[in-house]
């Protein structure tokens, strides 16, 4: 079994077409920050952008926004042809280990919302539950998309904290 290797991505490294292509295809357009803006935010917001490889094969990436009160797991993607093979589990295990002892939060498309990809959402939700995350019972809507907020580690998460993190992002980038 080949071990998972990690590469920290800086703005200078972000010209990698594999990273960009996975980002632009793994997330709905309305959940994406334009790539050039995201690259700029790597340095400005001190984002933890990590690419993961098995040998020389790129398998996926994560983007975490480290904060004092909790780390925001912002983006997490595995190449489509490599899903269902334990790669997401390897990446999430490495990410949890990296931030061990700290609270971590993520938002995901709500599994309780009626939609075309409800089975995918339910599988994703179950994946995070199996890995120690719990529902915070905090939900936010963007247009007609409901997001479920999940947390790993001690503490609680509130709508006020959601508003704070959105306010921090607006200091660097705005989508209006």
Strand order of the largest sheet: 1-2-3-4-5-7-6
User: What would the average pLDDT be, to the nearest integer?
Assistant: 90
End-to-end separation in angstroms reads: 46 Å
Query: Unreliable stretches, pLDDT < 50, 5 or more residues?
Result: none
Q: List the helices and strands in order.
A: EHHEEEHEHEEH
Helix content: 25-40%
Largest sheet, in brief, is:
7 strands, mixed
β content, as a range?
A: 25-35%
**Tally of alpha and pi helices:** 5
User: Any idea what the radius of gyration is?
Assistant: 16 Å
Strand runs, count: 7
Inertia-based shape: globular
Structural class by sheet pairing and helices? alpha+beta
Structure explained in plain terms:
This protein is α+β, with helices and mostly antiparallel strands. It is 34% helix and 30% strand. The protein has helices spanning 17-26, 35-44, 87-98, 118-130, 159-172; strands at residues 4-8, 48-54, 57-65, 71-78, 104-109, 134-142, 145-152. The protein has a 7-stranded mixed beta sheet, sandwiched between helices. The chain is globular. The N and C termini lie far apart (46 Å). The mean pLDDT is 90.
Give a short synopsis of this structure:
The protein is α+β, with helices and mostly antiparallel strands and 176 residues long. The protein has five helices and seven strands; from the N terminus they run βααβββαβαββα.
């Amino acid at each position: 079994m080949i071990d998972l290797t990690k590469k920290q991505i800086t703005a200078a490294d972000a010209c990698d077409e594999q990273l960009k292509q996975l980002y632009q295809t793994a997330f709905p357009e309305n959940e994406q920050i334009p790539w050039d803006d995201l690259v700029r935010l790597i340095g400005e917001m001190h984002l933890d952008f990590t690419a993961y490889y098995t040998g020389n094969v790129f398998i996926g990436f994560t983007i975490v926004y480290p904060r004092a009160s909790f780390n925001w797991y912002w983006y997490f993607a595995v190449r489509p042809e490599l899903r269902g093979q334990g790669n997401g589990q390897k990446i999430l295990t490495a990410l949890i280990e990296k931030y061990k002892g700290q609270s971590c939060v993520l938002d995901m498309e709500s599994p309780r919302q009626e939609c075309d990809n409800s089975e995918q959402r339910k599988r994703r939700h179950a994946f995070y539950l199996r890995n120690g995350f719990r529902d915070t019972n905090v939900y936010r809507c963007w247009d007609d998309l409901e997001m479920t907020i999940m947390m790993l580690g001690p503490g609680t998460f509130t709508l006020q904290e959601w508003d704070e993190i959105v306010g921090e992002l607006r200091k660097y980038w705005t989508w209006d």
